Inverse folding.
């Protein structure tokens, strides 16, 4: 362990000076020589590495609304350390705590858990409401720090693949990876050679434990792919277009040539749903218990699988639908069309929520990442684009591929896989919420047939690929979220736990009409209806009960309170108010002009000169 | 090439034996918990529905009185003991845990007008229509002994109410005037009057123990300081106040139960505007009592129902009624703040839960955590229309329901007239009087 003064070499010089004054730091088991414990316990070196951190034991820090105050480390800790040195914490044995106070929390980690958007302006509230909001905000800040600190307890680290200096990771073969990793991981790579039943679609269950695949020639199978235990294998004697697990691994939806069928994990047909015919693609929304089906007839149908009712059947008016994906963040369905647009759908609205023109040709594949911020699309124009879904729908990056990608998939940690012919390419980004950089390929793999289905396995570093030669499970280090939450989706859950989870999940089934672009909108202040109510109230009462009373000058001492002076005072206040109003409106106009002049995030174009 | 694959050891995630608890690793990353708000909303909706399903507030009815119950008193030391006085002069002492009567005294001839316990819990006082004040021992007479009061004071006029000081051996009665008595003497220490009218109730302030409040039938509420010979100040309302109750947590707040169907919470320091007007009853309010937390109070009304109001809200949170309950005359909130007792015309004392859907008895820690979580959720989503509608829904007897409709129409008509008058007169000539100030006639010091 390093001592603190030595570790502070890269710290600002001001701090160095301060530390140089002190005595050399000692280990906590060493005897104390002087009663004034100056320069003792400067904390572990771990703290030095983190430049920005929250220290919640200092209540002043956590409660200050000013965020920059928290993050500025070099100035703040100086005082704090001095204070701590005056009264060191001592145990019964006389030893000092080498790590006093709760563990530090980096600001960036705590930021991830923040829920309240402070930048959003609320209408002027009454003081009681305002104080309640303030309390809620401080509470939320404390909670986010606590949640961030609990990250220290996470057991697993994500996987990674790094080339030795200059080595390109894209050149590394699957066989090399299999050779280099442990036996348990190597067993996750397998190839099912099923040439007979044609190209395969596949789907992993939400826990990542089970795999189902269905071939064009009617072969349907489900297995526990970790233990390689087969659950069922049937031939439905009909073309299988798509296959999907429902909320648990016990139910399986299969889009067959004519109708939609539901099987259980024994392969017994439970339902044949004739209202959904000629289905091409399936998507399951697990929190709403909705099975979304896209059909050849151009209908997007939502089936509530908990009660067996069709919630909505929406006509997309765009011909055959064969490209569909869901946004896991807000359960909006993305449909790709032959005219190059991607439309966003919710069962509550008859028309698309948004339409994005993505490609010049038709759209071949769409995928949305787990945070709901990025959408990857590929089209007949051989382009692969990544769009920002947070409001602007602007393309972030574009790449032209030699062949064009027919299938796309995002992993839990933001890796993007694309199937192009018989090749699978994978791109990686900087982290979970950052878009994958399309310049550098992370991994690539050639298969024995054309790719027909792609999915990353949840909570395992595995990419499942269905192709015309069977099913391949390939290893992609760093693809999956290493730490699962036992109450949401637990790959190791027992039968009892699954049953309990199922009951809980059904109890909190989210109604279909709550699907919208922003799922947090439900918890925000409804400003529009608030203002509407206010207006109605004023109309009903005949006056505004919250209106400010007009200024009435107070009568002054005798002789001073002439009518002329009263009027003058009144006029003065009125003029001041009027001036304020004019000033405000001028400022607003200026801001508007500035905004209109510079549209954000768009390159200046040569055609801009014609804009009036 | 450096490579690391995610490889979990199942031993870390699966329990070792069947006797162990299942392992549940947690990760609070928001991307692993999508739809947080909609799911919480659904949970809140479910919690609200369950609350209405489990709302079974009625616990017991104590019967035995042979005439309407006129007054109730809590025991200051024992939660299980309750005293009640009836219109035939009978006083009964009840055991709430066993739900039976443990002692019966024929205390007065005519009504028992008031009953109060001494702060130590050893004795209690009653006043009746026979112009006497009697002090009784809390314990019953031993075998062979006669049931007799400790002291009897013969007065000149009828006493209509009594209350005991919270710390000293002093009590106050009311009738023609407010009398302050020393327990040892047969004559009052001092008598205070303000005008000539009968005073219906008198209450000591539990915090500032020298302060008293009383209400008289000439529509006023009078405040007294025991250390002075004259009253402090009074406020005159539109209609008569039946009784008042001091907030046990905030010394200067009291609530008055009025004949005009409303309750008024006053700040003693500014009597000209009540802090809040509580309206929901459809008939005269006869009694009011604060919860020991000081956050809520319960009111008894002539409309055969009792209602629970938050101190700072104008509308009630809860209404209790049964088919058999007639005009409720007196009501008390128990000292553990969990139960409510009410005595009514048809000779019964009823015991209710203060929180209608609360589960009684010891809760396991998981149950407790679940109720706390549900409570927080309900609080968070209380303003959403679906949640609000379910939480507010109450079944009401036909008489109350139709009266509410009727009064709503009347109020609407009055309001419309006011708005029209405002519209068609010179601006500023018709003053806008707020609902709070409307009912106050004058404050006199």
């Amino acid at each position: 362990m390093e001592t603190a003064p030595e570790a502070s070499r890269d710290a600002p010089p001001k701090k160095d000076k301060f530390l140089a004054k002190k005595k050399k730091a000692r280990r906590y088991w060493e005897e104390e020589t002087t009663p004034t414990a100056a320069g003792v316990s400067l904390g572990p070196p771990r703290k030095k590495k983190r430049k920005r951190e929250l220290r919640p034991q200092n209540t002043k820090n956590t409660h200050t609304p000013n965020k920059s105050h928290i993050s500025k480390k070099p100035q703040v800790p100086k005082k704090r350390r001095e204070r701590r040195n005056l009264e060191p914490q001592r145990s019964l044995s006389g030893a000092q705590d080498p790590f006093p106070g709760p563990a530090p929390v980096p600001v960036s980690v705590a930021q991830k858990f923040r829920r309240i958007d402070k930048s959003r302006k609320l209408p002027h509230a009454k003081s009681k409401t305002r104080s309640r909001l303030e309390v809620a905000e401080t509470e939320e800040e404390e909670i986010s720090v606590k949640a961030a600190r609990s990250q220290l307890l996470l057991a697993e680290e994500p996987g990674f693949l790094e080339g030795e200096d200059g080595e390109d990771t894209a050149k590394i073969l699957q066989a090399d990876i299999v050779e280099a990793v442990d036996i348990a991981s190597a067993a996750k790579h397998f190839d099912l050679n099923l040439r007979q039943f044609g190209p395969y679609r596949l789907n992993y269950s939400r826990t990542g434990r089970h795999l189902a695949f269905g071939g064009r020639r009617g072969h349907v199978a489900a297995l526990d792919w970790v233990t390689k235990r087969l659950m069922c294998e049937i031939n439905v004697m009909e073309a299988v277009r798509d296959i999907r697990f429902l909320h648990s691994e016990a139910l399986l939806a299969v889009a067959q040539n004519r109708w939609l069928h539901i099987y259980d994990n024994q392969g017994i047909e439970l339902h044949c749903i004739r209202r959904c015919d000629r289905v091409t693609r399936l998507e399951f929304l697990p929190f709403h218990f909705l099975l979304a089906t896209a059909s050849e007839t151009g209908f997007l149908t939502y089936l509530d699988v908990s009660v067996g009712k069709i919630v909505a059947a929406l006509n997309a008016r765009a011909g055959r639908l064969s490209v569909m994906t869901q946004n896991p963040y807000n359960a909006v369905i993305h449909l790709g069309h032959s005219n190059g647009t991607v439309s966003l759908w919710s069962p509550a609205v008859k028309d698309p929520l948004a339409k994005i023109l993505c490609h010049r040709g038709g759209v071949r594949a769409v995928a949305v990442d787990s945070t709901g911020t990025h959408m990857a699309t590929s089209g007949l124009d051989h382009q692969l684009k990544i769009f920002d879904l947070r409001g602007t729908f602007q393309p972030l990056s574009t790449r032209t591929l030699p062949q064009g990608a027919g299938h796309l998939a995002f992993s839990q940690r933001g890796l993007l896989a694309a199937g192009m012919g018989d090749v699978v390419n994978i791109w990686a980004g900087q982290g979970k919420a950052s878009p994958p950089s399309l310049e550098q390929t992370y991994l690539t793999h050639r298969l024995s047939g054309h790719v027909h289905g792609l999915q990353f396995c949840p909570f395992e570093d595995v990419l499942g690929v269905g192709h015309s030669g069977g099913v391949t499970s390939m290893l992609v280090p760093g693809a999956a979220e290493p730490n699962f939450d036992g109450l949401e989706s637990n790959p190791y859950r027992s039968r009892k736990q699954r049953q309990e989870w199922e009951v809980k999940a059904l109890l909190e089934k989210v109604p279909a009409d709550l699907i919208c672009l922003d799922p947090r909108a439900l918890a925000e202040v409804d400003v529009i209806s608030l203002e509407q109510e206010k207006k109605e109230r004023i109309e009903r009462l005949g006056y505004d009960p919250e209106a400010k009373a007009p200024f009435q000058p107070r009568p002054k001492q005798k002789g001073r309170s002439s009518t002329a002076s009263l009027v003058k005072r009144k006029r003065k206040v009125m003029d001041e108010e009027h001036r304020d109003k004019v000033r405000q409106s001028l400022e607003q106009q200026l801001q508007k002009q500035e905004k209109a002049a510079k549209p954000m995030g768009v390159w200046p174009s040569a055609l801009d000169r014609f804009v009036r | 090439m450096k490579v690391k694959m995610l490889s979990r050891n199942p031993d870390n995630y699966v329990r070792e034996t069947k006797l162990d608890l299942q392992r549940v690793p947690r990760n609070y990353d928001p991307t692993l918990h999508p739809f947080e708000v909609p799911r919480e909303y659904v949970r809140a909706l479910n919690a609200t529905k369950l609350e209405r399903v489990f709302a079974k507030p009625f616990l017991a009815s104590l019967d035995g009185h042979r005439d309407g119950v006129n007054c109730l008193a809590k025991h200051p030391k024992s939660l299980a003991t309750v005293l009640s006085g009836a219109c035939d002069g009978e006083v009964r002492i009840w055991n709430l845990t066993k739900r039976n009567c443990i002692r019966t005294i024929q205390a007065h001839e005519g009504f028992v007008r008031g009953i109060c316990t001494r702060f130590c819990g050893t004795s209690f006082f009653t006043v009746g229509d026979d112009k006497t004040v009697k002090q009784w021992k809390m314990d019953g007479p031993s075998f062979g002994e006669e049931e007799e009061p400790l002291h009897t004071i013969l007065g000149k006029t009828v006493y209509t109410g009594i209350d005991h000081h919270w710390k000293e051996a002093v009590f106050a009665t009311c009738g023609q005037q407010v009398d302050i008595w020393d327990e040892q003497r047969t004559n009052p220490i001092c008598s205070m009057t303000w005008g000539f009218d009968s005073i219906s109730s008198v209450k000591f302030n539990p915090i500032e123990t020298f302060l008293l409040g009383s209400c008289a039938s000439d529509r006023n509420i009078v405040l007294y300081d025991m250390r002075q010979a004259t009253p402090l100040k009074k406020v005159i309302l539109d209609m008569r106040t039946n009784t008042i109750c001091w907030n046990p947590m905030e010394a200067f707040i009291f609530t008055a139960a009025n004949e005009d169907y409303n309750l008024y919470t006053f700040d003693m320091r500014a009597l000209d505007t009540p802090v809040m007007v509580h309206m929901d009853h459809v008939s005269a309010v006869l009694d009011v009592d604060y919860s020991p937390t000081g956050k809520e109070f319960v009111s008894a009304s002539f409309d055969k129902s009792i209602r629970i109001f938050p101190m700072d809200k104008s509308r009630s949170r809860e209404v209790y009624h049964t088919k058999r309950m007639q005009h409720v005359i007196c009501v008390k909130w128990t000292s553990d703040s969990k139960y409510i007792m009410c005595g009514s015309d048809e000779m019964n004392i009823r015991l209710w839960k203060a929180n209608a859907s609360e589960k009684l008895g010891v809760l396991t820690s998981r149950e407790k955590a679940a109720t706390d979580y549900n409570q927080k959720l309900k609080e968070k989503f209380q303003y959403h229309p679906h949640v609000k509608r379910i939480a507010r829904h109450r079944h009401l007897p036909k008489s109350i329901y139709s009266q509410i409709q009727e009064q709503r129409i009347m109020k609407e008509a009055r309001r419309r007239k006011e708005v029209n008058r405002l519209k068609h007169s010179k601006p500023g000539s018709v003053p806008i009087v707020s609902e709070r100030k409307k009912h106050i006639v004058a404050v006199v010091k």
In short: The longest helix of chain A spans residues 563-597. Chain A has a mean pLDDT of 84. Residues 52 and 73 of chain A are 6 Å apart (CA to CA).
